[in-house]
Structure formats: structure tokens, C-alpha cells
Amino acid sequence: AKQILCLTERNRLERYISNLPDSLLRMIFTYRFINGLTWAQVSETIGMRTTEDSVKKLQEVEALLHKIAR
Q1: Would you state the pLDDT for residue 51?
Q2: Residue 70 has pLDDT above 70, yes or no
Q3: What number of other Cβ atoms are within 10 A of residue 43's Cβ?
């Protein structure tokens, strides 16, 4: 039962990420929440002059926008 719940949540998360309008956010969210990378690893993987703090900020902005859109 627990494994089914985990798969359900992962599918829900993947659907949410795939519906994000910005490809950079989709990449960041996938690396962080699907692949389990740390924020520092996400920053290194993304490159493009991002820092750990800048990728965290993008995630915070997305969370805020999601709350507003509800």
C-alpha cells in the first residue's frame, strides 16, 4: 500500500512539473524533486551562471505563483 502511495505521489509530481510553463523551472524541479539532487548539485548541473541561491529563489517564486493561481 505504501509503495502504491509513493508511485501515485511521484506521478502527481511528474504531472505538475510537466505542466510548468518554463522549461528552466521544469529542469530545476526534475533535478531537485525527481532525481533528488541537492540545490548545489542542481546549480552545477544547470550551469548557466546559476547559484544554489538562485535556483532556490526560482522554486520559491513558482510556489508563490502556484498559491496565487489557486
Answers
A1: 81
A2: no
A3: 21
